[in-house]
Every structure is written in C-alpha cells, then in structure tokens.
Amino acid sequence: MKVNVDELVCEANAVCMGLAPEVFELDDDDQLHILLPEPPPEMQDRVRSAVRSCPKAALSLED
Known about the structure:
Blueprint: E1 2-5, H1 15-19, E2 24-26, E3 32-34, H2 44-53, E4 59-62
C-alpha cells in the first residue's frame, strides 16, 4: 500500500494526523507530509480509516 495526498485539495484539517500520527504530519505552514508513504501492515487499517475520513477526499491509496 502507498499513501498519496493531493496538495491542491488538502485543507489541513488534521483528521488523518489524529487517526495515524505515525504516518501523517502537518507542519507550521499547514502542509501535510506523509512520513511513511508505504506503511507497514500493522498500520494499514488505521491508514485506510484516515483516508476514508478525510473531509476533502485529498488522500488516496495505491495497492
């Protein structure tokens, strides 16, 4: 699994960071950074939940 963010759509709501802080991080300029673009299997359920929970649908997954 690989996590992607559409930076033009992301509004820095931080929902993803709340659900999977090991994978997502917002910087001081409200830019989302993906810390683990290919999360390990034990994190994948939380990452899927974070992607589904994004209010702007700015996140996507590649299998």
